[in-house]
Each structure stands twice: as structure tokens, then as C-alpha cells.
Amino acid sequence: MATPPDSFKEKLKDENYWLRLPFMLLFFLAWKLTELIIIGVVLVQVVFRLVTGKPQEQLLALGSQLSLYAYQIFRYLTFNSNNKPFPFADWPASEGVDTDPYQSEANRHVE
Asked: Helix, strand or coil for residue 33?
């Protein structure tokens, strides 16, 4: 015989749910701060690219890490993950840079 689904009262008593809410608020604030930092990275990278003609390597890595961190926060806030992001987990490692999206597919393989 199948067990009946949890009642609404039992769900309200779920300690894990209530403990998650303050963390969600903190990670929402962390996401907003991350968003501001990403905007700064974008602006500095645009200026750097205009001046030197190529992106700045450390900013590429930082931008990659920040976007992965924001993704981890989104997954936690939307209940797609129970893993708390940094500082409760390791800071995300940066990913490699994508190839130039403005270069045609045929020219990418010639180099």
C-alpha cells in the first residue's frame, strides 16, 4: 500500500526548508553583488580591448569564474541544486575561452 503524500502541515514543519530560506536571501544578495562585478569586468574588458586590440587574460578568467558562480547561485535559488555555492563550496574554476564567434567556421580550422 502506497504511503499518502505529505500534508501541508507536515511540509510547513520541514526544518530543511526553513533553514534554506536565509541562505537563499544571502545568495540572492551575493548574486546581485556578482552582477555588479560582472558589469565592471565587461566595461574594463571593452576598454582594454579597444586600447590593446585583445582581451585581458586575467579578466577573461575572472569573467568565466563569476559567470559560473552566478550559474551555481541560480541553480540553488531555483531549487535545481541543494549544493550551496561559495563560500560553502570551492570557488569555480574558469573555463577556456570560446573561439572567436565573428570568424567564419571555414577560417577557424585553417589556422
From this structure: helix
C-alpha cell at 17: 526548508
pTM score, two decimals? 0.75
For residue 65, report the phi and psi dihedrals to the nearest 5 degrees: -65, -40
Q: How confident is the model at residue 99 (pLDDT cuts 50, 70, 90)?
A: low
Q: Max Cα separation, the chain?
A: 71
Measured between alpha carbons, how far is 64 from 96 in angstroms, rounded to an integer? 8
DSSP code of residue 96: P
67 closest CA partner among 41, 104, 99, 100: 41
Q: How far apart, in whole angstroms, are the C-alpha atoms of residue 67 and residue 13?
A: 35
**What DSSP state is assigned to residue 23?**
H
- List the grid coordinates of 94: 574558469
Per-residue model confidence as pLDDT tens digits over 9-51:
777 777 778 888 999 999 999 999 999 999 999 999 999 999 9
For residue 110, the model assigns a pLDDT of 46
